[in-house]
């Protein structure tokens, strides 16, 4: 029998260890252009919102790509609880948030959910930026599962349609004047979940009580007024794109911004697809090098911008906890939201006991936004947006 040398043993051990590298690290080391998120990871992220009406779903996808502005808008809602609808919009007229984020003020419960579950929001936005078509394909997979389980059907609140040729499932509000946001338990509504290692994120709107019903609706939201932004974004299932309703968007920005001209889109092009605006990313790192290059950002060096995790107070200048790689995780392994939605605490900057973005309703918005403001001001030298971003951060929670 041929003897194995020490060098050969070392090589065997090296290859065995490489085979045991966790999937997340493998993804970081994969060749440029390889998918950052597997289908099961995307389904895990999309499950809490896949059954939203198409127009609201599209808006959530777009807004999730601007997580730091979600923090600012969430804090604004928390500090202006007495204001609703048009009055809330009027109070925020000087806020320079991206239109999809500002339009989320119409759905304060959904906005609060996105703010409190900021880690999920950031991951959802990262997946959408890196693999938009895969994310929208996931919506259709999940809708089909919910329909087969008997939990997705036309009601007095919504209309469910199935296109005959493509079998695409469309969800629309039953009334153009009122939107009912579905409330459901993702672990129940889709029937048997086929990815035990990747259970759906436990993301629910405020006040949700598990076990009451597999599928229900929150109170209706009026969206028919001139100040409403609902309907400015829609799902183009034919090419898995986000469509922009030009007239709706221009009307919304005209009525809800002091600097509305900045957000007006070409009225002569009625069939526009949404394009991500890096300016409103507010320095949040992109999920991988390809996405960074696509939107003109740099991952390292003197001009590098902080990640959302750093801006929330994790980093002390060290950047994102995973070095900027994909953050989607196996929820069955514990830690933070992965263990039933309990907040994890982190004191990475030496500041003592700062809570992470998964903190609960009572504390989350204000503390996270305050932490964000401090980091934002310290990274101002690298901001292409100059003083406007800092001004927005400082005024985001001012009561009116």
Explain how this protein is built.
By secondary structure, the protein is mainly α. It has one domain. It has 16 helices and 9 strands. The chain has helices spanning 6-19, 23-29, 39-46, 54-64, 67-78, 85-91, 99-103, 108-116, 118-130, 132-148, 186-189, 246-256, 289-294, 308-311, 364-378, 387-395, and strands spanning 158-162, 169-173, 178-179, 182-184, 215-217, 221-222, 233-236, 241-244, 272-273. The strands form 4 sheets. A 3-stranded antiparallel beta sheet has the order 7-8-9. A hairpin with a 4-residue loop joins β7 and β8 (241-244). α4 (54-64) packs across α9 (118-130). It is globular and about 50 Å long. The termini are far apart. The model is unreliable at 12-31, 298-307 and 309-400 (pLDDT under 50).
Number of strands: 9
- What is the average of the pLDDT values? 75
Relative strand content: 5-15%
Structural class call reads mainly alpha
The largest β sheet comes out as: 3 strands, antiparallel
Molecular shape:
globular
| Helix and strand element order | HHHHHHHHHHEEEEHEEEEHEHHHH
Read across the widest sheet, the strand sequence of neighbours is 7-8-9
Distance between the termini: 84 Å
Please indicate the count of domains: 1
Q: Give the radius of gyration.
A: 22 Å
Q: How many helices? A: 16
- Poorly predicted runs: 12-31, 298-307, 309-400
Measured as a percent range, the helix fraction is 25-40%
Summarize the structure.
The chain is mainly α. The protein has helices at residues 6-19, 23-29, 39-46, 54-64, 67-78, 85-91, 99-103, 108-116, 118-130, 132-148, 186-189, 246-256, 289-294, 308-311, 364-378, 387-395, and strands spanning 158-162, 169-173, 178-179, 182-184, 215-217, 221-222, 233-236, 241-244, 272-273.
């Amino acid at each position: 029998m041929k003897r194995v040398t020490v060098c050969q043993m070392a090589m065997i051990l090296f290859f065995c260890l490489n085979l045991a590298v966790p999937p997340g690290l493998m993804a970081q080391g994969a060749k440029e252009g390889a998918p950052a998120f597997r289908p099961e990871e995307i389904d895990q992220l999309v499950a809490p919102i896949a059954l939203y009406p198409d127009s609201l779903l599209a808006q959530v996808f777009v807004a999730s790509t601007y997580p730091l502005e979600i923090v600012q808008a969430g804090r604004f809602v928390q500090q202006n609880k007495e204001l609703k609808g048009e009055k809330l919009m009027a109070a925020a007229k000087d806020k320079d948030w991206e239109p999809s984020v500002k339009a989320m003020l119409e759905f304060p419960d959904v906005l609060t959910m996105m703010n409190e579950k900021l880690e999920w929001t950031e991951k959802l936005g990262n997946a959408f930026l890196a693999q938009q078509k895969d994310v929208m394909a996931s919506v259709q997979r999940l809708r089909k599962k919910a329909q087969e389980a008997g939990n997705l059907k036309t009601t007095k609140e919504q209309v469910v349609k199935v296109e005959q040729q493509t079998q695409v499932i469309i969800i629309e509000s039953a009334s153009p004047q009122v939107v009912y946001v579905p409330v459901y338990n993702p672990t129940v509504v889709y029937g048997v979940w086929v990815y035990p290692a990747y259970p759906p994120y436990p993301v629910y709107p405020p006040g949700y009580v598990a076990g009451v019903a597999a599928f229900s609706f929150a109170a209706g939201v009026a969206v028919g007024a001139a100040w409403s932004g609902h309907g400015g974004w829609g799902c183009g299932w034919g090419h898995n794109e986000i469509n922009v309703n030009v007239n709706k968007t221009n009307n919304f920005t005209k009525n809800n911004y002091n600097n509305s001209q900045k957000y007006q889109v070409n009225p002569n092009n009625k069939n526009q697809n949404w394009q991500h605006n890096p300016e409103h990313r507010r320095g949040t790192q992109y999920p991988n090098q390809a996405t960074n290059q696509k939107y003109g950002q740099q991952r390292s060096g003197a001009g590098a911008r902080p990640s959302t995790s750093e801006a929330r107070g994790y980093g002390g200048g060290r950047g994102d906890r995973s070095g900027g790689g994909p953050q989607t995780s196996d929820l069955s392994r514990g830690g933070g939201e992965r263990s039933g939605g309990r907040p994890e605490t982190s004191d990475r900057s030496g500041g003592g006991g700062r809570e992470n973005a998964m903190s609960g309703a009572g504390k989350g918005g204000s503390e996270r936004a305050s932490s964000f403001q401090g980091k934002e001001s310290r990274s101002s030298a690298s901001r292409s947006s100059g003083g406007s971003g800092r001004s927005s951060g400082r005024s985001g929670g001012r009561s009116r």
